[in-house]
Amino acid sequence: MYNILICDDEKDIVNALKIYLYDASYTIFEAYDGREALQIIGQEDIHLVLLDIMMPQLDGISAMVKIRETSNVPIILLTAKSEDSDKILGLNVGADDYITKPFNPIEVAARVKSQLRRYMQLGGGKVRPEILKVGGVELDDKEKEVTLDGEPVALTPTEYDILRLLMQNPGQVFSPREIYQKIWNDLPYGSENTVAVHIRHIREKLEINPAEPRYLKVVWGQGYKMEKGRRE
Fold it and tell me: Which of 74, 100, 114, 190 is deepest in the core (most CB within 10 A)?
């Protein structure tokens, strides 16, 4: 399953591209300005971005510069014929390709497949499994459900996002600042206390004894991690 972000301030264009890219192996995310695009990229594991240049709030070129600070995800610019100088600028600052409006559906699908194939072959990204398991904890990201030893666990959306982040990266330690930035996509002021509260709530729902957690561990002075490959 590949996650594709379409960002254009014209809803009709977004809807058209969704139709062109209808495929069982694609999950489509939508944004209507650069700020929304950055927020989604900070929260989701995006494998390719279709990005309009001319948008309100934050234009495509500026958004792409921000994306390139942390990610090498393929970016295909959506351009008008009159935007030749912007095409050149976009390619110079990090775009992988561009498609000129009005779109040819076959061309759109072909360019997306080509960029995804190259990205994955070069090891730039990996497809996240929809079902994550650590010991008795199972997270079904398609159904947005979490179970513990087969029993459903009720998590808030924020608790779910934090747990998914940790389960997608078992054994990796995330500082409270990193978790806050990834989940809230905001400056991490007061992040330690905010994250600690949510971690405590997750533990209370997943751990038999939250004081002696089996799954969600604290690495003192560093942050939190999901125990890697734990066996019951």
Answer: 74
Rounded Cα distance, 38 and 50, in Å: 13
**Residues in Cβ contact with 69 at an 8 Å cutoff, skipping those fewer than 6 apart:** none
CATH of 131-226, one of 3.30.470.20, 3.30.750.200, 1.20.1250.20, 1.10.10.10: 1.10.10.10
Q: How far apart are CA 106 and CA 111, in angstroms?
A: 9
Question: CA dist 165 to 10, 21, 102, 215, Å?
Answer: 31, 27, 38, 14
Q: What pLDDT digit, counting tens, does each position of 99-129 carry?
A: 988 889 999 999 999 999 888 776 666 556 6
The dotted CATH code for 2-121 is 3.40.50.2300
Who wins on pLDDT, 80 or 76? Answer: 76
Length of the chain: 232
Does residue 219 sit in helix, strand or coil? strand
Following DSSP, what letter does each residue of 42-69 receive, concatenated?
A: HHS--SEEEEESS-SSS-HHHHHHHHTT
The whole-chain average pLDDT of the chain stands at 86
Q: Is 171 left (phi over 0), alpha (psi -120 to 50) or beta?
A: left
pTM over 0.70: no
Cα 65 to Cα 62: distance, rounded to the nearest angstrom: 5
Percent helix, percent strand, percent coil in the chain, to nearest 5: 40, 20, 40
User: CA 196, CA 165: separation in Å to the nearest integer?
Assistant: 15
